[in-house]
């Protein structure tokens, strides 16, 4: 038997393959949008993919379960509570998949969602591992507030938090201590709030160190779980439904995206629809020297997918710009990871821009901070830990587009985050939206000096 883990660092997502070496068969758990790594793994071992298990309809990424089933003939297993709209076999408490000496059993573990399951793996009748989806993470548990407006089953965060309390204690913590824990996410995901950077753990280790498994009343647990959860990106409800329906094939879908001619002068820029946002993924320094109107500087480095799906709405068309065709192809694939590839009106290499970011004088700012309106675009949990500027206006990046009207324009604006990525996005968005009503400066990496 072999267990293979893949990590998509951009989305902090873990997916898995369980290989029966004797039977030459593979079962996949929570696969990512691009199925090629799973095909390569099966080919490497001379094995056939026979099953795909979805622990729940994911909110933060798009799964390739339907495509894999159509290509390989594998059966998709998912809880009956999902009411999946693709061919599948229900997989709930008491249901098993047996392959050689391997037995995979479903455990209904509601809490993150009403339809969440965990998958217990036994080899030669010994419990070896538990694939916990978004129920139990390393150091944390799944957030319970994503299904109040998504999926076929709506549930309040309070009710799901109560269900999480019992799923953790009665279903997972009771497993043997040496059972390996394989979650669907690691540190950096928005599906939890305080995950470890570790890729796996054991039930015994989690009993000792995971806050969500410590002794607490139901009421105490619910209060702790609901406190300080991160924001919910706009694309999350959309992805829940897309995963419940099944996404189109990855390669076929990204090949449909039009990589158009280079934008190198005013004539080529004029062919763009001025009503559509241009997501410009070039480095901030390059962007500031010259960019197109109605642009947002969302750099390739960092959580590109998360912020794209937090600023651009599901179904909203946009342009994608980059420094090379190679970069564009990579960004299109990353856009597809959240199911937004069909929203790309066209993609362009950008070597031109008639708009420029205002030059920022750091010394003047340090000496005369009262002459600026300072916008802090970090998340509320970060602001809670301390503000570099006591008089700043806090508007998280995910909310800037909708809250521009709250920002006074009688002074120049200085935008900051924790390191420069989010402030580049927010300052460019504000410059485009305010359209000259106020000068907008990006503090960028200089925030570290404060």
TrEMBL record:
Listed CDD domains: POD-like_MBL-fold
Keywords: Metal-binding
Domain of life: Bacteria
GO MF entry, a single one: sulfur dioxygenase activity
A biological-process GO annotation: glutathione metabolic process
Alphabetical list of InterPro entries matching this protein: Metallo-B-lactamas (IPR001279), Mito_Persulfide_Diox (IPR051682), POD-like_MBL-fold (IPR044528), Rhodanese-like_dom (IPR001763), Rhodanese-like_dom_sf (IPR036873), RibonucZ/Hydroxyglut_hydro (IPR036866)
Residue span, Rhodanese domain: 272-311, 368-432
PANTHER family: PERSULFIDE DIOXYGENASE ETHE1, PERSULFIDE DIOXYGENASE ETHE1, MITOCHONDRIAL
UniProt protein name: Glyoxylase, beta-lactamase superfamily II
